[in-house]
Amino acid sequence: MTMPAVAGADAALLRTEGLTRHFRLGGMFSGRQLHAVDGVSLEIRPREIVALVGESGSGKTTVARLLALLYRPTSGRIVYDGRPVDRLRSRRDLLWYRGQVPTVFQDPYGSLNPVFRVSHGVLRALQLHRPELSPAARQAEAERVFETVGLSPARRLLRAFPYELSGGQRQRVGFAQALAVQPRLILADEPVSMLDVSIRIGLLNLMRDLRDQAGVSILFITHDIASARYLADRMLVMYGGHLVETGPTEAILGAPRHPYTQLLVASAPDPRQQLTEPAGALAAEPPRVIDPPDGCRFVGRCPVAVALCAQRTPALTQLAPEHHAACWVAAAAASGERAQVAQQVLER
Amino acid sequence: MAVPLLDVRDLSVAYLSEAGDVGAVDHVDLAVEAGEFVALVGESSCGKSTLVFAIARLLAPPAEQTGGTITFRGEDLVHLRGEALRHLRWRDYSVVMQSAMNALNPMKSLEAQFGDAMRAHEHVSRSAIRQRTVEVLRLVGIDPVHRQSYPHQLSGGMRQRAMIAMALLFSPSLILMDEPTSALDVVAQRSLMGQITQLQRELGFAVVFVTHDMSLVSHYSDRLVVMYAGQVVEAAPTATLFGRPLHPYSRGLFDAFPSIRGPRTRLTGIPGSPPDLRRPPAGCRFHPRCPVVMEACRTQAPRLADQDGTLVRCLRYPGSAAT
Amino acid sequence: MTTAVAVRDASDEPVPERGARAAAAGVARAVLRNRKATLGLLLLVVITVIAAVPSLLAPGDPKAAIYDQQVGPSLAHLLGTTQVGEDVFTQLIWGTRLTLVITVAVGVLVTAVSVLIGVTAAYVGGATDGALSLLTDVFLIIPTLPLLIVLSTYLEGSGTIAIIAVLTATGWAFSARQLRAQGLALRTRDFLEAARARGERRRYIIVAEILPNMLSLIVASFLGSATYTVATAAGLQFLGLGNSNDITWGTMLHYAQQNGALESGNPWWALAPGAAVAVLGTTFALLNYAFDEITNPALRPVRRGRPAA
Question: Whose CA is closest to C12, among B280, A309, A5, B289?
């Protein structure tokens, strides 16, 4: 490698600190900034699936693009395997990173070049990232990853054009392309959102198997809590460019602390469950992300907001082991609980 | 027994092409009573959107109705042309499309567009347009101050609601909705569905709601119609179907939904994909993917048969085999 | 990562084998089924053969001024003779080659330049796009005739090259705008992002990923330029701005007009090259329409199917 490892390399496979990305709006002289992502600090460990959940416009796709180094961060750091990667410039370094952290895209109808056979992407990936392979070995590898993702018979399917495959098959091709480089982490940007519900399960199961049997970590970006729950060990919830809650999936779904997460969980349709009217916040005004003021971005829709919420932006605070939320009210409640628990312990 | 508001009988629609006609809708019956909420559920290319377009008389070449009748309030919709059809459109039934940005004119304010729609049907004054615009915007929960807004100034959820407002201009008795929530996030979706059912209670119109997401309509629809490969495979009151899905495809669809609560088990979904409708499978169209397929299924095409109030098209149930 | 992940629930629909032969057969079928394509292709083949081996049809020397002057058509001279006694038919046949060469040369050059500028502007974006678009707009406004007059004064004696240069200079901008527009539309497609995420170089992406998707527009641009060139080149030569020593249909028109062929003597001297220009223009126009129809099924004439059952 061309870079020395940072002293004290951590257990996390990928880590960000204060990741921020702003876009300038208007012409060259306009001062308006769109705060797509602000101060996101997250962590992805080996052999785990982390779900990044949020509605459209929450910044989750921008986070994916930042982690793929397709955008440069406005500020903040990205650390992969102990090495800072956000400032990588040389082609060799970038190529190395791309071979470690490939991306799977959302649109099965747009993510494959229609004029080439589906083998094109896989073979190119192999050429770029595993140049030591001979053409015969490349072909064999391509067949192997196709079989791995369930595209069988591989030899015949490799020769197909995208229009001959179904949406589900095309997304599998996307995963095959990612697997070809032997990655440790796959960034999956809404990989099942555009597929029919009955096809989604097949791909979700594929991702599960990749984690369990191939040891690959996956950042699963989605707006659908149900599939996030099915797949993910941990969940990160985004709103208006901020991370508002993080923690183990069951903890977040069982006892969501942030009012937005609570709203999300209550709104998700579940035919096996009785319908509950979600508390307030139904007049859905989108969060203000253009030159936003200080303060929580959910304040306009929040049923429990207090004055402080509009004045100071809440930081992610630990409310329970591994469970963080960025909410003044939740933090106060938690410290109140902790004070109570401490009191009980003392009294015993 | 009242005459149904909408009575579709034996409807077939095909896409004509030199390479072979594609039968998108195959001998479908659908009856909708006044005030009823009927959900049409199925995967892509099952024909549900084509069916709705045929009902709305919006089919364009190469799609063509090849058989069957569509009766609306006792009148034959198929043979209505020109003025008579225009008269019915929007007054008696209206359509809400999948994407607001496809239906709303980005160059005109809401009031201007609503005005266009109204003036297409009758002579109205500016003040009448303004008044009605305010009324329908209030109905869908949009602040009337937005009547001068342009579509791009509204959020996605508001745009969809604006489309519904437009569909309500003449208080029609039937609204056809083609996946109106698919572009929205979960919270906006829930909000919109609640809005639609509330309006239904207030105004009494019937709804035909097309979606690929069963769980979305599970709490709102009166009846559920499941389509596969251009045919109706199961139809029943919603609660009945959710409690006791009969057709293997419906059961497969249910099992494909991960739930938020309850145990985290591994689901299997339905292997394979929907068939190429140029050459649908012989016998039952679902048989290549069916987990409980029998020998007869490969050669015998089942008919829709009644099982205690559920219509199901499957040889495993008595009455489905053609005699 | 050597273990294969067991996945049982993938689709195993059979995928049809599509070799190059099958694809070529498909194209041939599409061409034969389309009447415009068949006719256009036929005409093009005939004209190309004539251009390649003119002696097949007209064994004489087009510049041989040995015959009777300005006589009408006869068995010996199918289209009569010119003012100085050349055989018009022979000239027409021999003139095909240079006419066709000019047409194809301009077509190719226009396409090359417009692709280079249009696609680069679209994909690179930013200031580069601004500069290239400005350049395109400037060239769109430049009028053909004054430019040619200026250029031909500098390029004395090499009239053909001047015509090719001017027609290219005035023709590329239109196609460049179209290609830029399509490039912009393609730019947001995920497969290009995917190529970047894979680690491809920008140059590679433009040439190997974007261009093949624009093939349809590029071919259409070529055919359109060719159509435009046929008439315009002939027009310029008619005005005397070509190389007067070359034999093309345009120069024939020029001399015919100079010598009053229509009013007296041999009207065919003017009519024949005029008709030939029209035929060549029509050929490329037909191919252009046909190409559109074959590649875009939505444009095909809808054959109404069988009546409702």
Answer: B289
- Measured over the CA atoms of residue B78, residue B82, residue B88 and residue B93, the dihedral's sign is positive
Question: pLDDT band at residue A179, thresholds of 50, 70 and 90?
Answer: very high
C65 backbone dihedrals φ, ψ, rounded to 5°: -95, 60
Instruction: Answer yes or no: do A284 and B273 touch at CB < 8 A.
Output: no
Mean pLDDT, residues C234-245: 80
A196 touches chain B (CB under 8 A): yes
ipTM: 0.83
How many other C-beta atoms can be found within 10 angstroms of the C-beta atom of residue A109? 14
Residue B93: name the closest of B220, B222, B205 by CA: B205
DSSP for A98-157? Answer: HHHS-EE-S-TTTSS-TTS-THHHHHHHHHHH-TTS-HHHHHHHHHHHHHHTT--SHHHH
- Using alpha carbons only, what angle is made at residue A293 by residues A291 and A298, rounded to the nearest 5 degrees? 105
**B305, β-bridge pairs:** B312
Residue numbers in C near A165 (CB within 8 A): 15
Closest Cα in chain A to B254: A198
Question: Within an 8 Å CB–CB cutoff, is residue B269 touching chain A?
Answer: yes
Q: How far apart are CA C111 and CA C220, in angstroms?
A: 10
Copy the structure tokens of residue A150. Answer: 């369930």
- Greatest CA span in chain C, whole angstroms? 90
CA distance B207 to B225: 13
At residue B239's C-alpha, the angle toward residues B238 and B244, to 5°, is 100
Count the Cβ atoms, other than its own, within 10 Å of residue B16. Answer: 17
Neighbours of C135 (CB within 10 A): 14
Q: How far is CA B84 from the centre of its chain?
A: 24
CB neighbours of C89 closer than 8 A, spacing ≥ 6? Answer: C58, C77, C78, C79, C272
- Chain B residues close to C304, C-beta within 8 Å: 16
Decide the pairing of beta strands B206-211 and B37-41.
Answer: parallel
Q: Are C3 and A165 inside 8 Å of each other by CB?
A: no
Residue count of chain B, please give it: 323
Residues of C in contact with B19 (CB under 8 A): none
**Predicted local confidence at residue A342, as pLDDT:** 60
Q: Is B150 in CB contact (< 8 Å) with chain A?
A: no
| Residue in chain A nearest B44 by alpha carbon | A196
Is the model's pLDDT at A317 over the cut of 60?
Answer: yes
* Binary contact (A229, B213; C-beta < 8 A): no
* Torsion sign across C-alpha atoms A31, A35, A36, A37: positive
Residues 6+ apart with CB under 8 A from A148: A176, A179, A214, C4, C5, C7
Work out the number of other CB atoms within 10 angstroms of the CB of residue B174: 22
Judged by CB atoms closer than 8 Å, whether chains meet at B67 and C308 is answered as yes
Min distance A70 CA to chain C CA atoms (Å): 7
- The token duo for B154 is 């509204």
Average pLDDT score over residue span A28-37: 82
d(C-alpha C1, C-alpha B259), whole Å: 31
Judged by CB atoms closer than 8 Å, whether chains meet at A197 and B213 is answered as: yes
pLDDT in tens, B164-211: 888 888 888 999 998 888 767 788 788 888 888 888 888 899 999 999
For chain C, give the number of residues.
309
Per-residue b or e along C224-263, where b marks 16 or more CB atoms closer than 10 Å to that residue's CB = bbbbbbbebbbebbbeebbbeebbbbbbbbbbbeebebee
Average pLDDT for B5-9:
90
CA triple B236-B238-B239, angle to 5 deg: 110
